[in-house]
Amino acid sequence: MSDLLAHLNPPQRAAVTLPAQHALILAGAGSGKTRVLTTRIAWLISSGQVAPPGILAVTFTNKAAKEMLTRLAAMLPISTRGMWVGTFHGLCNRLLRAHYQDAGLPAQFQILDLADQLSVIKRLLKSLGVDDERYPPRDVMHFINAHKEQGVRAAQAEAYDQYTSRRVELYAAYEAQCQREGVVDFAELLLRAYELLQRNEPLCRHYQARFRHILVDEFQDTNRLQYAWLKLLAGHGSVIPEGTGACLFAVGDDDQSIYAFRGADIGNMHDLQREFHLSEVIRLEQNYRSHGNILDAANALIQQNRSRLGKQLWTEAGAGEAIRVFTGWSDVDEARFIVSEVSALVGDGMARDQIALLYRSNAQSRVLEHELFTRGVPYRVHGGLRFFDRQEIRHALAYLRLIANPDDDTAFARVVNFPPRGIGSRTVELLAEAARQANSSLYRAALGLPGKPGSSAARFLDLVDRLRVQAPARPLAELVDLVIEQSGLRAHYLNDKEGRERLDNLNELINAAITFLGEEGEQENEEQDSDGGGPLAAFLAHASLEAGEHQAGDGQEAVQLMTVHAAKGLEFDTVFITGLEHGLFPHENAVRAGEGLEEERRLMYVAVTRARRRLYLTHAQRRMLHGQTHECQPSLFLDELPAALLRRIEWRTAGSGARASGAGAEHGTWQEVRKAGGLRIGQNVHHARFGAGVVVSLQGSGADGRAQVNFDKHGMKWLHLATAGLALV
DNA sequence: ACAGCGTTAGTTTTT
DNA sequence: CTAACGCTGT
């Protein structure tokens, strides 16, 4: 056991060996958060304080849950069996499957992802004849989800004006519709599980007696409902029998809270302290990731935020390199600099996957990708289409869903005419109308319709029927194969020119089914409760809850491109934070909202703390946005970093000795015009707004000519010679 | 049933 | 500037 604690620093050890009590651990970036969490569990178990079934560990992502299990398996001599480790959604799904009747759900209930949910809402609005201009489906969906995340049902929702009142009605209709179809959306998964425990006292007592330690990762990202769920399970706020209820061990970092827009509420951190009477908070501030300069920059930046619990990262590593700042003349210029820098780093032996290019919004990847592609640098963009989101996979899953639950209208509508079998929109409309009148699902309405035997509609119903009859006798993978074959999907994609890849994906789905069953059997389960609905329902839930890797890395070691949000939790030797311009990062939409700027700053903080050794901050003076070129001001975050930590990078400039690679082709161009406008490199100039500076490079000629000037006070700028009014000094 | 056209919007996202 | 969506015409 002492081995467990051997490599921990004092605060980490204090957190791990805390007596059985509620606790909040404020874990800074790179401070060994996951390690503390897993070691705590291992310590609790190996010191005999709790048996594995007494542990409930909650994360937000499947990746984090998996990582926790892997590390635990390495630490503990005994099996992790019996522990509940998973995402909020995964665990709630488990609860609902085990107690589906008490929760008022069919055994085969399906889980709607965001796209499915939107599709349900669209159909609902249509059937109710709602003007979707006034009530855009996306807004309605957001309205519904926001309420559910607050734990508010339609019946309790406040309708303070007529418009809202209508949306509450739609929320109620949506609830009814989902109930009729036997489907639950993501938020419903949590709300149902919460209500299940809240209303069923014996059941709640059972779990309160079982779980003695609840550990939560990324606590700052919890929404109100998730916090309420945790409190309920921990037995907080109600009188419960002696020896039951759990200790809540929450690990989080308020400075890395970047998901307020989807309901995360940092207020939960304050409430946790208050409601659980936490006298002290353990702070993990020693950072094992980054060099000193990077941490100093991060600290200085985040200090500008007013509402913080307070924390200061430090390291035993040296100061390291200065933070490099580059100002591009344009977004393209910025990208060229970055890629040239990347090439140089790779040339010096740095692994490409240790270089990350971060941006605030996805659209920004375009220019970077173009440049990387042109220069032949392998790269990988995170955040693309996920496996279970692919069209062909969704089609196949829809058939499987129909087999499991014929009332699933979303699934029905998706495949009723795919592959095309002559069931047009007219037929579907009639069907929808019949279903609405009979208050039944599309499938049942279709059964009731006076369809001619042999009609395409009847053949479709036969197909689903036939598959459903065969389903129970078949192993899951075989069933998937059967569905792909008999539905005509395989034949359809065989005739398709881009179908090759889609067929590969469908075959991959069969593999996924095999893998899934393997893993399923390996873990769980001495408990009977975990499958309500058999392997098919479990597989479908898996498909909804774990959307799969974004794309299998093609093996080739590649430069990593992603949004700052997607980078949270990751680390790289070298990080480029790009597009550091006002309006872009911080994003203008965020700045307008009340606390928006602070969240943007936290986002910047997350970005900065991703870097181990080298950090580049880049921005452009003009950028193409929505088809128009915009003049861009540097991000205010650049000004919030101590100048002493920064070093401006000059690129393709005379005599600077900066990376000259890539300048070859353009070298001649600017050499010819270096005398443009009477300016020369090294010329001292004065600008009305920026003051004194030195010309470091010249480009273009005539009305197009521009000069890069390093201003004493304002750093590097590109200026139009025609308009800048530079005075020679 | 589907191609082709016009319109419109355009942060961040896991489950 | 795009991409995505919805509508119209064949």
Notes on the structure:
The chain has 729 residues and is α/β, with parallel strands linked by helices. 45% of the residues lie in helices and 15% in strands. The protein is built from 30 helices and 22 strands. Helix 11 links the parallel strand 6 and strand 7 (247-252). The chain binds a DNA duplex (15 and 10 nucleotides) through residues 60-62, 87-90, 93, 111, 113-114, 186-187, 189-190, 221, 258-259, 261-262, 360-363, 366, 383, 417, 420, 422, 424-425, 544-547, 563-566, 584, 587-590, 599, 603, 624-628.
Summary?
45% of the residues lie in helices and 15% in strands. By secondary structure, the chain is an alpha/beta fold. The longest helix has 24 residues, at 499-522.
Question: How do the strands and helices of this protein lay out in sequence?
Answer:
Layout: H1 2-6, H2 10-16, E1 23-27, H3 33-46, E2 55-59, H4 62-75, E3 84-87, H5 88-98, E4 110-112, H6 114-127, H7 137-149, H8 162-181, E5 183-185, H9 186-199, H10 201-210, E6 213-216, H11 224-234, E7 247-252, H12 267-275, E8 282-284, H13 292-302, E9 323-328, H14 331-347, E10 355-359, H15 365-374, E11 379-381, H16 391-404, H17 409-415, H18 425-438, H19 442-448, H20 456-470, H21 476-486, H22 489-494, H23 499-522, H24 534-545, E12 559-563, H25 564-567, E13 572-577, H26 588-592, H27 596-608, E14 611-620, E15 622-625, E16 628-631, H28 636-639, E17 646-648, H29 664-672, E18 684-687, E19 691-699, E20 706-711, E21 715-720, H30 721-724, E22 727-728
Parallel strand pairs: 1-7, 1-8, 2-3, 2-6, 4-5, 6-7, 9-14, 9-17, 10-12, 10-13, 11-12, 13-14
Antiparallel strand pairs: 15-16, 18-19, 18-22, 19-20, 20-21
The structure holds a DNA duplex (15 and 10 nucleotides).
